[in-house]
Here is the input.
Amino acid sequence: MTAGGPGELESIVAQLRDEVQRERQVRERAEAGLTEALNERTLLAEQLAQSERQNQTLLNLYAASERLHSSLDREDVLAGIQEIVINLIGSEELGVFELSEDGKSLRLVSAFGIEPGSWEGVTLGRGLIGEAAQRGEPFVPQSAPGSQLTAVVPLKVEGRLIGAVAVFRLLPQKHELGPDDHQLFDLLATHGALALYSAALAGKGRRP
Here is the structure.
């Protein structure tokens, strides 16, 4: 094989350089395409997971609503509220209060995991529970030393306070409240209140 002149050699080197550059560009495009595909796959997986969480939230809200309105028996309604707090919110320490006839205090009508004697009567407007009930909006204390209170959910029917649900310590495996819990608080505030109110009316209707 006869070696070419300097000009031919430079031409061959230039061609090789161009081929290397083209291969590099092809590889870079392929890597970019693969990265984009992986990003799209990750995004789709996140969207799917979010959709599944949303569907589960909707199912939980629907099941909770059905449970509250499945009976006009007062004890069944109170049991339904307990189930929502225990199984969906994640607390085994709670109290359900009803507004007294004079409208000045809350009386404990159902308790789970707490000492009833400590919460027999709560003056409206006093303490975390009484203040939250008077304000009429679900309340999550930022810090409540010694009380271990997680949330207070006032129960209102057509804007009128009829009681409250107090949620104390969460289960050990649950470290904080999430958006789903606040949706459940809203459900308790409306549907829980309406269910209790309806059960009270039904109870009065059954009395001789």
Observations:
- The first strand starts at residue 94 and ends at 99.
- Strands lie at 94-99, 105-112, 121-123, 151-157, 160-167.
